[in-house]
Amino acid sequence: MFGAWWLGDSLQVFDGPPAGSHLPTMLEMLGILFAAAGQYWRSRGDPAARAVVRWFGLSVAVGAGAFVFTVIAPSLVGLTPGLPQGYAFAFFLLIHIGMAIGVARYRLFDLDRWAFRILFYMTGAALLIAVDAALISWIALERAPAFGLALVMVGFLYLPLRDIIARKLFRRDAEIEASFQDMLAIALAEDEAERMDRWRGLLERVFQPLKIVAGQVIGAPMVIEDGAALAIPATGPLPPLRLEHAMHGRCLFGSREQAKASELCSMLSHAIASRLAHEQGVAEERQRITSDMHDNIGVQLLGALHSRDPVRKDELIRDTLADLREIINNSAGERLTLAELMADLRVEIADLLSSTGIGLVWQVDTRAELPPQSVAAMRSILREAVGNALRHAEATTVGIRLGDVASGLVLMVADDGNGFDPETAPAGNGLRNMRSRATALHGTMKVSRGAAMGMRGTVIEVRFPREGVAA
């Protein structure tokens, strides 16, 4: 077509350069764009090929379009070109650059938004020039008023239309905002199968992939295969996934989808971590109540059972009820010195042992302070150690020693009973609870059979570093 037009122009069939050379150039430009649109339509089932066509169409629209609208279009309407034709030919380099990038398939997955913005900006500029030329040619306005009126018309009519189209093409934010409740539902699912079903359902709703399959182990969401797939990492107990062909195959995954996937994975990770922390807290609180019931309530009820004095029996039961309320409410918040705590325990333990005819040797030499969280632990360790001696040792004397050492404090409970071999004897709940409480105070516990405090039998020694008990 261009060759025939050139021949006609050479034979002076057309009247002047505008019709002889400029008009066919404009028509050729439009023909290329229509051909690119046809290729775009034919590649609707292949997002990657469609992205390459976008590169080609964008490069032609930018390169050739800039040449047409700076040189050809002004000449057609009788205006002076804004740029010399020799310089304007440099715009055609953009076509070659765009084609090279398309062949290299560089970041094809991000082109849809870039192409949308560039093409709509160019369309706006073209409309501005066209309206300005029409006002000058048809209404005979001066150039300055015509340009101002054209700018107002394009601003009020074209820009809102562009925003409406953009929202329809890239509307996914509402789904992301509405997905926080889904995150909570996923984290609070009853079992792993239900949690996985809800996670897959959320990904399908947000990204609308054609297929979700098992993925490879990665550290973060990643666009792969030139945007044909989006890799989702393992999140908490959920395995990694691979999403293929976004928006039912109509487009590629891009950096925006990758960022949204990262946001979703982060929110889900926090939700699952919160649930695990809650479950761990519940388990620890249940274990605390169980240990306190075993170590404190059991020993006090044992003392009430062996007491021959009805008044003392009633006092022990009242103390047991008070301790039970304290265990449930975890109200051990007052700050006591070790001396005050040990004085209270000396009276309680002495009454307990004397009711069964067992003597007590008491040696306390420390002025260290005990923080509130350590009061219950120290009390429980002593009560359980004395209770074990009372129930199992058949002892006649129990010795308790608490003193300072270079590394902190050492608590010793010894008896003159028959003892046992800690290596072979099965460990009951009492010993496990004492070790757990010693560990909570950053300490260690040792159980042995030997001589201590002038007695030979079972010896329980607990050592605490100063940071575990210091105020």
From TrEMBL:
The chain crosses the membrane at residues 20-41, 53-74, 86-106, 118-140, 146-165. InterPro entries: HATPase_C_sf, HATPase_dom, His_kinase_dom, Sensor_HK_TwoCompSys. It catalyses: ATP + protein L-histidine = ADP + protein N-phospho-L-histidine. Its EC number is 2.7.13.3. Keywords: Kinase, Membrane, Transferase, Transmembrane, Transmembrane helix, Two-component regulatory system. It is an enzyme of class 2 (transferase). GO terms for biological process: phosphorelay signal transduction system. One of its GO terms (molecular function) is protein histidine kinase activity. This is histidine kinase. It comes from Alteraurantiacibacter buctensis.
